[in-house]
Amino acid sequence: MYVLRFLKEFVNHPAAIGAVAPSSRHLARKVAGSAGVGDASVVIEFGPGTGVITAAILELLRPDALFFALEINPEFVEITRKRFPHVTVHNDSAANARKYLEEAGVDSCQCIVSGLPWTTFDNQLQDTLLNTVVDVLAPGGRFATYTYLQSTVLPSGIRFRKKLCAAFGDLGITRPVWRNVPPAVVYYAQK
Ligand SMILES: C[S@@+](CC[C@H](N)C(=O)[O-])C[C@H]1O[C@@H](n2cnc3c(N)ncnc32)[C@H](O)[C@@H]1O
């Protein structure tokens, strides 16, 4: 679903999209599950794209939980809002997560599920966004994101993993999710 629209956005904004196709349901469920969505009262999704991971989050989300997403691409915002009219999707950078938490009347979240293309980001943007993750997560809060297998050996992928280890101390890595194009692993950590 939405494969062609996703590909079109990738052609126009390759670094910000970072993938030629949306994640598979298998990868989406692995990321949402690794983030501990079902235990959290405040959940934020970074970079929902066309909403594959959003759907996996909604399968696990507590009915009383506060949940919103931050997506920088207006086309994807429109698609995700249309698919999930009851989900709040802000058209803004994930770097501004604190502002939306405060607007919602809370000062931290217990869970961040990220679909951001970390390995296409430069050093500074990786730092900015990772600092936001650490800033808005409550103590004990969980973070999960994915990266394509081939990106784990690229300099930007190695740099990102080191930053995650430095930020969280302990980093979990799942087995590869083969049923995704391309195959990916999920990184997960607890503050
Ligand atoms: C690899 S795509 C993943 C989309 C979707 N989560 C999935 O798994 O199919 C990366 C997404 O992150 C979004 N994105 C990139 N930089 C962002 C930022 N700074 N803040 C919020 N979203 C961003 C892109 O527009 C795109 O939707």
Which helices and strands occur, and which strands form pairs?
Blueprint: H1 3-12, H2 14-17, H3 25-34, E1 42-46, H4 52-60, E2 66-71, H5 74-83, E3 88-91, H6 97-103, E4 109-114, H7 123-136, E5 137-148, H8 155-168, E6 172-173, E7 184-190
Parallel strand pairs: 1-2, 1-4, 2-3, 4-5
Antiparallel strand pairs: 5-7, 6-7
The structure holds S-adenosylmethionine.
Give a verbal description of the structure.
The chain has about 190 residues and is of the alpha/beta class. It has one domain (about 5-190): 3-Layer(aba) Sandwich (Rossmann fold). Helices cover about 40% and strands about 20% of the residues. It is built from eight helices and seven strands. The chain has a seven-stranded mixed sheet, sandwiched between helices. Helix 4 links the parallel strand 1 and strand 2. Helix 3 (about 25-35) crosses helix 4 (about 50-60) and helix 7 (about 125-135) packs parallel to helix 8. The longest helix is centred in the C-terminal third of the chain and has 14 residues, at about 125-135. The mean pLDDT is about 95. S-adenosylmethionine (SAM) binds next to helix 2, helix 4 and strand 2.
